[in-house]
Structure formats: C-alpha cells, structure tokens
Design brief:
This protein has about 575 residues and is of the alpha+beta class. It is about 55% helix and about 20% strand. It has 14 helices and 17 strands. Strands 2-1-5-4-3 form a 5-stranded antiparallel β-sheet. A 5-stranded antiparallel β-sheet has the order 7-6-10-9-8, with helices on both faces. A 5-stranded mixed β-sheet has the order 12-14-15-17-16, covered by helices on one side. The chain starts with a helix and ends with a strand. The model has no long low-confidence stretch (mean pLDDT about 80).
Amino acid sequence: MKTSIFLKIFSGFLLLTLLLSGVTGLIIYQQVRSFHIETLETDLTKIGKSLTLQITPVLNDGRFDDLDDFVKSLAPDLDLRITVIDESGTVLAESDEDPSDMEDHKFRPEIIRAFTGVPGRSLRFSRTVQSQMLYVGLPVRIDGRVPYVIRLSLYLNDINTLLSRLRSHMIKITAAVALLALIASILYTRSLTRPIRDLGLASRRIASGDFSAKTQVRNRDELRELAESFNFMTDRIRYLFGELQEQKEELNGILESMDEGLVTMSSSDGKIRRSNRCFSRISGESELEGKFYWEVVRAPHFGELIRKTQDSGLRNSGEVRIGERTYLCTVARTEGLEEIIVTLNDMTELKQLEMIKKDFVVNVSHELMTPLTSIKGYLETMENGVDDEHRQFLSIAMRNTDRLVLIVKDLLSLSELESDIIRIVREKVDIHSLIETTLKIFEPRFREKNLDILVDVSKDCPPISGDAFRLEQMLSNLLDNSVKYTSEGGITVKAAREDGRVHLMIEDTGIGIPGPHIPRLFERFYVVDKSRSRQLGGTGLGLSIVKHIVQLHGGTIDVNSTPGKGTRFDILLPASP
C-alpha cells in the first residue's frame, strides 16, 4: 500500500514528540518524587539526631517504661512514628503500637545499616500500620558502641497526594506541549512536502509529453536548488527531445528511401523491432513489428544466417532466395549484443547477368574450340611443306593457337567449377602420392631452369578428403605459376596436420608479387605483369581455378609475398576421417 511522504514525516514527528514528552514527564516526576523523599529523609535525620540526645540518658538509666511513655508523648507533636530497637532486634519503645506486641526488627534494612554506625533508609509498605512509609534509622552511640537504634517513620500518604496532583498537572502540560508540537509538525511537514508534491506533478506532466512543465519553490533551501535543477533539466529534455525527434524523422526518411530491405530484431528471441518499406515489400507483410522473423520470411538459408550470428556474434552474409528473387543477405549484431540488423540487397538482375555471362563464356568457348582445333590441325599439316623463310611465321601462328586453345580449356574448366551443378567425388587422397605424381610433370622444366625442389610431408599427415583429379589440377596450377616466375633458387612443397586439417604449403624464391596486387590475385584474367605473362604463356585463369577448387573442397587459401624474395601459398583442406 502506498504511503505518502507527508504521513511518513508526520508519523515520525508524532512518535518522536510523544516519546520525548512521555520520557520527559516521567523523568521530571521521578526527580520531583526523589527530591521530596530526600528532603523528608533529611528532616527526619535532623529530628532523629535531636531525639537521640534526649533519649540517650533514659537508655543509660535502663528506664524502658519511661522511654515508651516519652516516645508516645513526642510523636503527636512531631506527627511522626518513633521506634527504639536494641541490638537484639527487640522493640523497646513505639509511639503508635504496644512494643510487646511487635515482632523482631533486627532484619529491617534501615535497622541493619544503622547498627553499622551509619544512618539507614528504607521506603516500603508497613504491614503493621497497612500504609507505605519512609523509614530512617539512626544509631545511638554509648561508650563507642551502637547498642540501640532510633527509627523515625513518616506516612507517605500526603506526599503521594502531592505527587498525584503534580502528575496530573504534568500530564496536562505534556499534552499541551505535544499538541503544540504536533501542530508545528503539521505545518513544517506540509511546507516540506508541498514542493516535493509539486515536483511529482511536474514530473508526471513531463512523462506524459508536456515539456513546458515548471515548478516554483519559495523555500530558500536545498528544495529550491532541486526545483531550479529540475526546471533546467526540463529545458534540456525539451531541447534534446526535439533533436532526437529530428534525428528520428531523418533516420526514418533514410530507411524508407533505401532500395535495400532492412529489419532489426531482438538477438534473444528473434522478434522484429523495426523494418523499412522495402523489407515489407520483400516479405509481403505490412505489419511486421512484434512478429518473429520466421513467421515473415520462410527461407531456410535466411534463418540459418541469423542463427549463426546469434550463436557467434559475428557478421555473416550469403545469398537468400525469397520467392522468385535472389538477395544478398547480410546479418550483423550490434555492439551491445542486444539487437540483430539484417539487410537484403536485391541481386536478381546481377545473378541473371552473371548467368548470361557464364553461358556466353561457355558457349563461346565451345564454339571456339572446334575452329581452333581445325586451325591447329591445318598448321601442323602445313609445317612440313613450308620453307625455312616462312617457317617462323608458321611457328608464331601455332604458338598463339596453342595459347588460345589453353585459354579456352581453362575457361571451360572454370565455368564448370563455378556452376551450381558440379559435384566432387570425395575419396581419401594421399597427399605424398599427390605431390610426387604432380612433380613428375614438371621435372623437365625444373632441370631446364636448374631449380631445386624440396618436398617435406610430415609422417602424421592424414590423407585429404577430396577429388583426386581436382586436387592434382589445383597443385599443378600452383606449381606452374612457381616455375614460370622463379629463375633461380627453388620451390618447396610441405604438408602437415593442423587442427584436424591438412596444411599444404607451396613456396618459391621467384620475383614475388607487389602488395597492391595480392587482393585481386584470384580474379579471372587478372595478371600482375601483363607483358611477362604474355611472354610466358599465362592465361590469367590458373589462380582463379585454384581458388574455386579449394572452396569446392571447403578449404581456405592465403597468399604471402615479398617482391624480389618469393611467394608462399598456404592451403587448408579437410582431412579424411
């Protein structure tokens, strides 16, 4: 249940006031009572000392009957009860009772103390007279001893009546003081809580969107400083909210004008938070917020990319087919790891253009292969009938025809590798046998250029899980590149196990590759030195074929090169289980 600050503060003041009033009244009452009793005790002590001087001669003479008459004669004038007790506890004289009827007084506290030579005091209820009394016992010294004690008693009825009247007056005074304190508490609490209540009302107005809310506090204390800070905060919120509104409108304008579909979703449950018009058009849904992404886009690869990003937190991208169109889907996770951002870039036309280009290359390659084969055949036929003067021209024509044939073959091979229908036949391929078989093809060229060849295959290197023909084609292209661009030194081929895969390394001591060229090295028809490549008979397709073969096997390839020192290719391929 809600409790207001006013009630809390007022309750605290009320409790404190009542507690202080009650404690103060009780302390004053006890102090007044103690003061009166001490005053009576002092008076009784003075009277007792005077009586001691009068009674001592009678006690010395042993006239105990006269002593009792003497005590009874004094008591009415003094309005006191007087008792004389010997050291055995026997009552010798008593002003109000017959001494012979009284019990032994030896163990009364005031009597015990008085026999020690010190005045004793006791405040208790007397069973003899059935009333509360104050007792003061005084020692009677005779020859240095205390054989007798005079006890003076005073009825407390009068003082109790006085204290009762005092208690009544004190209760009234305490109640009046408490009432005044409570009225002051109400006024003070109200002055303290009114600014807080005003701040609360202004805060609710701001929460509802009214940023013009202000609060005024007349107090010259911390509450006024708080109100001024609150008003300053309100101004700042109004300014910042205006800026945020402008930025939001600008962001919405940008998102809605994008040609790419964009959607953001919760990284925990995949619930959509925001999307643009383009994504709504792609999904075919108008109301997307609050729905799960799998309810909107039913494309298996789309969900797979999102789940991979949810699990790893890494950026992922891939092609996604939604309906009749193809999109490049990019999935990223925000730094706070709370939101996933997905963009869909329509690449249907690009894919169609790429398919047309591939078909064109394949068709042209097939169409060129037949005339080139015929041309080469006719040139070889003419070779024996040409004189020496024209033989060099025939040789140039044959060399260029061979180069065209090689380019066409590489184009056909690359087109096959890039097609979606190609399937590799996986088998256990012994890496050592693969290297030895491929190197035999290049032995004449090694001897021709006087190059050293070093093969290092670790004993624990497992076989590769892949297509033997394609792997030999990959290694052949890499070795062909190394031999072409290495004039001296040698080529090193290594293979070893690495994290459950096979690490294949081909390193040469050739001319190397400048850094800016390395990112484009695997593009089709890309050559670093066009004149040198043309001279050496390169097609610019070998490394592109290598990359596609590696990717087809689920591996990776990396290049490191230093101009003038050589080039190193590092390939990681899956090992056979």
